[in-house]
Design a protein that fits this description.
Layout: H1 2-23, H2 28-36, H3 44-55, E1 59-61, E2 68-73, E3 76-81, E4 87-97, E5 113-116, E6 121-125, E7 136-146
Helix pairs in contact: 2-3
Length: about 150
């Protein structure tokens, strides 16, 4: 009976320690400092990912061309993320043109603009050089947080 009681106390202590470790931090920075304490520098990327996921820290992410598509509808266009892999995409920076991608020249592109992404869709109004029946997008950067 005492062995069972001792095991229950030990288990409760481990669960309480884990709960304090997981839920105890109030910010990304505090999480990073807490978890890196006593760790080697090689642990940084793992700890950054854990804390980034917990606090939804936005960071630059790498998205392939197969992970998004562009839909043109006259003056309006949408960038639709297919999945985003291990990230939730929150915004992107891109430039647009009104011709087919293979016909685009340096002067055909509009300015780089930032587009907010919500529920995997970024919607924007096409302006100036961006207007055309075909349309092409040149993605510069994507930002998001770990799922």
């Amino acid at each position: 009976m005492t062995k069972l009681f001792g095991a229950a106390i030990a288990l409760a202590a481990v669960v309480a320690a884990f709960a304090m470790w997981w839920w105890g931090d109030s910010s990304y920075e505090e999480c990073l400092l807490t978890r890196m304490k006593g760790q080697s520098q090689s642990m940084y990327s793992t700890v950054d990912k854990v804390c980034g996921r917990k606090f939804k820290k936005e960071t630059r992410v790498y998205i392939g061309k197969d992970d998004y598509s562009v839909f043109n509808d006259g003056m309006f266009a949408q960038v639709r993320m297919t999945d985003g892999g291990e990230y939730v995409v929150t915004r992107l920076k891109a430039r647009f043109g009104g011709k087919k991608c293979e016909e685009m020249k340096a002067d055909d592109w509009g300015d780089v603009r930032e587009i907010k992404v919500t529920n995997n869709i970024g919607t924007f109004v096409r302006e100036g050089k961006e207007i055309g029946l075909e349309g092409c997008m040149n993605a510069v950067e994507f930002y998001g947080y770990y799922k």
